[in-house]
Amino acid sequence: MNTSLTSPTIPALEPPERSLREARLRASQLLKDLQSNIRSRVLTAAERLRRLEPFAALPSDKLFARRGSIQRKHALAVVAQEWGYESWAALKADLAAGPEETEDVGPE
């Protein structure tokens, strides 16, 4: 009798679809992480914020001290840059346009 333990195969997760909703959710999570009581989350969030010019040169302790002044617009800009966009406005314009849709008009 084989008594070895085996774990079930866990399917690989697909990356989430990039949408304005997903971007906003990620920005909200970044803000929550920044306000967390868990130091590793705060530090990770602070490092992500360093993508933005106003925060890039700040030492960790200064960025940590200013975390209460970080706004949603900052978090949205971070997500946009992580996704390869220059700004939130660029991401929003691109995703709002959506994929080109073809209209099915049917027979005339």
Folded structure, characterized:
This protein has one domain (20-96). The chain is 53% helix and 0% strand. It has helices at 20-34, 39-49, 53-56, 60-65, 72-82, 88-97. The radius of gyration is 20 Å and the shape is globular. The protein starts with 19 loop residues before the first helix and ends in an 11-residue tail after the last helix. Mean pLDDT is 82; it is low at 101-106.
Structural descriptors:
6 helices, 108 residues, disordered C terminus, single chain, mainly alpha
Helix content: 40-55%
How many extended strands?
0
If helices are DSSP runs of H or I spanning 4 or more residues, what is the number of helices? 6
Largest sheet: none
Structural class: mainly alpha
Q: Radius of gyration, Cα only, in angstroms?
A: 20 Å
Order of helices and strands: HHHHHH
Overall pLDDT metric: 82
Instruction: Tell me what portion of residues adopts beta-strand conformation.
Output: under 5%
Give the N-to-C terminal Cα separation: 70 Å
Global shape? globular
Low-confidence runs of at least 5 consecutive residues: 101-106
Total domain units: 1
Quick rundown:
With 108 residues, this protein is mostly helical. It has six helices and no strands.
